[in-house]
Amino acid sequence: MTLLSLTGIDVRDWALLAEDELPQEGASVLVPLSRLLDDSDKLFQVAGKVGALVPTNADYTALESLCGQLALVVIDFPAFGDGRGFSLGVRLRKDLGFKGEVRARGPVMPDQALFLLRAGFDSVDIADDSRVEAFRSALSRFDDFYQSDYTGGRALAFARNGNASTRAAS
Amino acid sequence: MYAYDKFDHAMVDTRVAEFRDQVERRVKGELTEEEFRPIRLMNGLYLQLHAYMLRVAVPYGTMSGDQMRRLAHIARKYDKGYGHFTTRQNIQFNWPKLSETPDILEELAEVEMHAIQTSGNCIRNVTSDQFAGATADEIADPRPYAELLRQWSSFHPEFSFLPRKFKFAITGADTDRAAVKWHDIGLIVRKNEAGELGFEVLAGGGMGRTPVIAKTIREFLPESDLLSYMEAMLRVYNEQGRRDNKYKARIKILIEAMGADEFARQTEAEWERIKDAHIDVPKEEVARIKAFFAPPPLEVLPKYVPAVEELSKKNFVFAAWVKNNTNAHKVPGYVNVTISLKPHGGIPGDATAEQMDLVAALADEYSQAEIRVSHEQNLILPHVALRDLPAIWADLDDAGLGTANVGLLTDMIVCPGLDYCALANARSIPIAQAITKRFGDMRRLQDIGPLKVKMSGCINSCGHHHAGHIGILGVDRKGQELYQILLGGSGAEDASKAGILGPGFDEHGIVDALEKVVAVYLGERKEGEEFLATYRRIGAEIFKEAIYDAA
Fold it and tell me: Any chain A CB within 8 A of the CB of B31?
């Protein structure tokens, strides 16, 4: 297993808190979203930092009240084709203003590296070490993009037209 | 036509390099077929019954003579000398070698073409009116918007892994030649009371095993808000569309389940949050793209051309061709010529490399170097001067492209069926050949009049049978290929779903059954009444009796 940073931030492995277990005082723990929704108060009091392990079928609004206390959100892709994970990344940045780390876990593909980055992900947890190089090279493959995103990237249409900063008026 | 700038070139060149690397890894065995599958699908490469199939995008069905020549070259060099034009206005090559597909994509990139997003659960090639920019009945040329959508949807970071494939169609005319109501999202260019351009936005249409006609989500969306509104719709779908069952994963199922009003409400709510987030491109970009689609400078010419009239009097086939295969251009003295790829007894939608070369040469000489592909699987030369029709027809006829059947019974939409497709239950091509031979008499065809017959070799309905005035659906019943008849569908502005008439027929019986349907129509029609109107007036029962009781 390799943790790859997409944005250049420092990344490290977070221990997943076992069911019924309480974190050690001051420890950084990854906690399934369902448990955080059940009772988060105690966890946030005891743990040093808390990360949420979020399934792709989660409603982003469930994260709204937790967001400010989380240091990490790990989105758990059950399959590379489960595109809800990308929308969750977008929602965290765009609608919840989440400033912590967003990580992808599960069978995502190297060819998705740029999509992840542009959807607001900082890091990816790569189960198969032989894929790390492919992820790295995919990350720098394209220089320009046709769409604006919610990580500060502007559609190349703006560059094409002298960095026009205004959208067409309604 | 749109021309790539350095950014567009870099985009497709990078994609080709990436794909070459992936194919090499696959050929060396570093990637398993399971791992390679999603990658090849994102580049339009399918594994069919007998071989790989490469689907090349023809964005909104518009291409140049040079691009068509390149397709001919690819057919000759990498395939068996032909290609197949599809209902998504694309072209498919049926026999490429895997190891050569990167070379094909590289040759395509040189002429500003690609196979990006011609398959997979992403936004596919945006289709449009084949007469866009060349027809008298349009409010505005829809292709600049289609190009905006093409760019916006290419490698979209959030919408490249949707629950299922996603199809857009856009038209600029009230007469719908793009079947917009049968699409995941359909757009119709409208003008509001202030005379400003915008779109009626429809969503939730689709064929497949659950045919649904799209519903209007917004009556008028200003032109400048197109991309942000599309993003809002796609986000609602990406988050809530079903992923547990691929047959229930299209947006039509979501919209049926939540209701069009609720889908509209959620879309509007999301759009309010993002409409000022620079998703829409600057107005300079819209103007830049529109400039590529400026109408060609055409000198007004006489509408009466003696040479055309004289040849029509002498030659019935030419007269029929002018009547059926040409339609009015916005400039007097010009027409759009539809080249039928439905020769009687031939394979619908196929064109040989030689035929493609001829069409390219004719385009260079007579149609401003422009060619269109229609969703009805024909080719179009737009902007043709009336006076050039005799010369064009003579060349087409020599090449087997002169069939005068556009819009008539034998101008069928037909999927590749079991001869090629891994999903099919039944063959389509031989049935189409039998039908077009049986109905091959031009005088009889003309007498029957406008009639859209559409055939699919399985329930996935790539042959649009739900939208056929007469639909034919191939099914498998205990190992036997049977063909059901459906009546009363429409893919036009009066969209309707065809209904199944009854039990299926074998490959011979289906042709006889079609004869009986036509006979009922001819007996029942009022003066000047087309098939669909007669069917809607008299209903299915009388057809049913004729087909099943007599048997």
Answer: no
Give the minimum alpha-carbon distance from B526 to chain A in angstroms, rounded to a whole number.
50
Tens-place pLDDT, residues A132-165: 999 999 999 999 999 999 999 999 999 999 875 5
Q: How many Å from the N-terminal Cα to the C-terminal Cα in chain A? A: 49
**CA distance to partner chain A, nearest, from residue B8 (Å):** 9
Give the Cα separation of B223 and B439 in Å (integer): 45
Task: Look at strands A28-32 and A49-55 and give their pairing.
Answer: parallel
Q: Please state, in angstroms and as integers, the Cα–Cα distance from residue B501 to each residue in B215, B237, B238, B517, following that order.
A: 26, 34, 36, 11
Site from A56, A63, A77, A86 to mutate, B interface, most B CB atoms within 10 angstroms:
A86
A101-105 and B350-352 as β-strands: parallel, antiparallel, unpaired?
unpaired
Q: Which of B35, B155, B282 sits opposite A161 (nearest CB)?
A: B282
Q: Return phi, psi of residue B306, to 5°.
A: -55, -40
Q: Do A95 and B161 touch (CB under 8 A)?
A: no
CATH of domain A2-139: 3.20.20.70
Which pTM value belongs to this model?
0.96
Domain residue spans of chain A: 2-139, 144-170
CB A31 within 8 A of CB A51: yes
Q: Residues near B150 by Cβ (< 8 Å), separated by ≥ 6?
A: B59, B60, B125, B126
Nearest to B339 by CA among B312, B310, B314, B367: B367
Give per-residue pLDDT as tens, B66-121: 999 999 999 999 999 999 999 999 999 999 999 999 999 999 999 999 999 999 99
- For A79, the closest chain B residue by CA position comes to B161
CB neighbour list of residue B528: distance below 8 Å, 6 or more residues apart = none
Contact status of B224 with chain A (Cβ, < 8 Å): yes
What number is the ipTM of this complex? Answer: 0.95
CB contact under 8 A, B284 and A164: yes
Cite the DSSP H helix spans in A14-148. Answer: 33-38, 41-46, 84-94, 113-118, 132-139
Q: Radius of gyration of chain A from Cα atoms? A: 17
CA atoms within 13 A on the CB side of B513: 27
Residues from chain A contacting residue B35 (CB–CB below 8 Å): 109
CB environment A119-147: b (16+ within 10 A), e (fewer): bbbbbbbbeeeebbebbeebbeebebbbb
Do the strands A28-32 and A15-16 form a parallel or antiparallel pair, or are they unpaired?
parallel
